[in-house]
Please model this.
Amino acid sequence: MIPDSATCIEVIGEPASKANSRRIVMFGKRPAIIKSQKARDYVKAFEKQVSKLPNLLEGDLAVHITIYYGSLRPDLDESVILDCMQGLIYKNDRQVKEKHIFHGLDRENPRSLIYIWQTG
Model:
């Protein structure tokens, strides 16, 4: 059950799966792993849509996230969303101790509906 005190965030766009969002590139002779273009675009969109809380949430946290994908193909993966909230909503994503993650389908309006609250 989502408490009334939960912070609610809606983010338009489809997050990239973290497992599929890295690629290897060469910087001269040195290989490096970077985020895919889709992941970088999602991070930018997230940062434009979500304002930093004046006081970041502290302590142990719980999240309830429904990710509405544009198709049934993507794997359910909230990790990029949790990474994006770091520094905007809470200090570190290690604070998230409880997760309720759901896969939704909305071909017209892919988005994520996020509720986050302190558990202790």
Remarks:
- The radius of gyration is 15 Å.
- The mean pLDDT is 92.
